Amino acid sequence: MVTLDTEATNGVDLYSKIYDFNNLFQAYTASKQGKRWKNATARFEINAMAELKKLQRALQNETYKLGPYNVFRIYEPKIRDIKSIQFKHKVVQRSLCNNVLEPVFERSFIFDSYACRKGKGTHAGLDRTSEFFRRHYRKHGLEGWVLKCDIEKYFDSIDHRILKRMIRKHIKDERVLKLLDDIIDSTPGGKGLPLGNQTSQWFSILFLNDFDHFIKERLGVKMYIRYMDDFVLIHPDKAFLQDCKRAIVEYLKGLELELNHKSHIFPLRNGVDFLGFHLYLTDTGKVIKKVRRDSKDRVKRKLKKFQELYEKGERTQEQIEQAYGSWAAHAAHGNCYYLIQNMNVRFERIFEGVGEKNGATIKQPARRGKGKRSRNGI
């Protein structure tokens, strides 16, 4: 595998790391994980080596072009339009992200910026927020304040011109820049990034990277954490956070961004909604993490829909177990013992009696994670 070095970062030969065959092969292997059942993935897999060679030649000859998007709408957790690219383009973007964007951008990111970074997922962000809560409690008890913010239509509002300028601070290779410009400009109008692109994840972290340093270094906020466009500041002084909010609003104007109406300062004792959980402190300083009510309602609706699809033969037990297992693993990260037990019962009802009705034998689903036992689980 071609590795990143200082010389490549300065623009000497960064582009070749994208089309290095070992890097493309590893990107292909990672891209197909969990997606081998899809027709597009299966078609690529039949002649994988030949398809990878085609991609390598196109990239090497600089004739590679990003194809059209498949646009579809999702309704959970909120209505959003997703732009998905063909599987071969996902392979290219994964190689680009893994071998160029990640190693180059990572050097400038603060520790407490979370999202697609290694070891910086949702649960790592929750653990870090819990640590901040405990740290604050040891010094100040329950007396304190939380500034919880998120940015209005963040992905749709990212300005291409500003983003390209930021990227050029870190990458000098003209061929890489041309490829990145083509990906960015695949969204017309000069603003917005496709939610389905892996590159969009890294661009969205980078776009607020200088802002992260502004919060930590200029405003001097020690307990600050960001996950994409959601971020939290914790401080014992409400007036200080009010000043911070005004400074944040002014800073974001320079990026042509603005906070949404849900951005407010809350008493720390009330807790905060962050990363799908409601976190709060008890009188003894214990951090409790509860799955938010909207997440509970969503999984109930999904289980009801899964039962309908299973009875019609439109979903297999394996597919349903995989989907439900993801939610159960997420909930198990909090204090949700009784909630998970309740949902396990609903989950197992999906398969009751269907085997006999169809003349087949259905195995009993495995019990899901129990989570951390708490009488506040539901």
From TrEMBL:
Its domain of life reads Bacteria
Coiled coil region boundaries: 296-323
What InterPro entries does the entry give?
DNA/RNA_pol_sf, GrpII_Intron_Splice-Mob/Def, RT_dom
Q: Does the keyword rRNA-binding apply?
A: no
Tell me where in this chain the Reverse transcriptase domain is found.
1-279
Instruction: Extract the Pfam families matched here.
Output: RVT_1 (PF00078)
Presence of keyword Nucleotidyltransferase? yes
A GO MF label: RNA-directed DNA polymerase activity
Keyword vocabulary terms for this entry: Coiled coil, Nucleotidyltransferase, RNA-directed DNA polymerase, Transferase
The protein, known as: Reverse transcriptase domain-containing protein
Organism of origin is: Sporosarcina contaminans
